[in-house]
Amino acid sequence: MSMQSQIMGKISEALSPEHLEVINESHGHSVAPGSETHFKVVVVSGEFTGVGAVARHRRLYQILSEELRNGVHALALHTYTPAEWQLTGQAPPSPPCLGGSKA
Questions:
Q1: Contact 38, 24 (CB under 8 A)
Q2: Cα dist. 80→24, 26, 40, 66 in Å?
Q3: DSSP string covering 52-97
Q4: End-to-end Cα distance, the chain
Q5: Average pLDDT, whole number, for the chain?
Q6: DSSP-derived secondary structure letter, 50
C-alpha cells in the first residue's frame, strides 16, 4: 500500500471527514523520484468544530504518528470544520521548496 493511501485510510477511519485530500508533493522537493515523503493534507471534519488549530494538528500528528516515524518528512496540514470549508472551499497553494538542490 502506498504511503498516500495509508494516510488517507487512517484519517478516514479516525475522523470520518466530509472532504479529504492527501496530495503527494514530494516531487517538488529534493528527494528521489517516486518518493512519498512530503504531503499536503486537507481535512474537513465536524470533529474540528470548537477545536483550535493547534489541537486539530495535534490530532492529525497522533493519527499519523507511525507514518511520521517511518518515512513521512513533512505534512502541510489544512484543517477545516464544514462551516469553514463552506466559506473557503479550497486550501491555499503550497509554497515552492527552497531547500536542498531545489534552492
A1: yes
A2: 20, 23, 14, 23
A3: -HHHHHHHHHHHTHHHHHTT--EEEEEEE-HHHHHHH-SPPPPPPP
A4: 32
A5: 88
A6: T
Residue 29: per-residue pLDDT: 67
- Give per-residue pLDDT as tens, 6-45: 999 999 999 999 999 999 887 666 666 766 778 899 999 9
Q: H or E stretch including 39? A: strand 38-44
Q: Which CATH class is domain 3-93?
A: alpha beta
Amino acid 98: pLDDT: 65
Do the strands 74-80 and 38-44 form a parallel or antiparallel pair, or are they unpaired? parallel
Q: Which amino acid is at 96?
A: P
Grid coordinates representing 46? Answer: 465536524
Q: Evaluate if residue 103 carries a pLDDT over 60.
A: no
What is the torsional sign of CA 68, 84, 24, 2?
positive
pLDDT value of position 71: 86
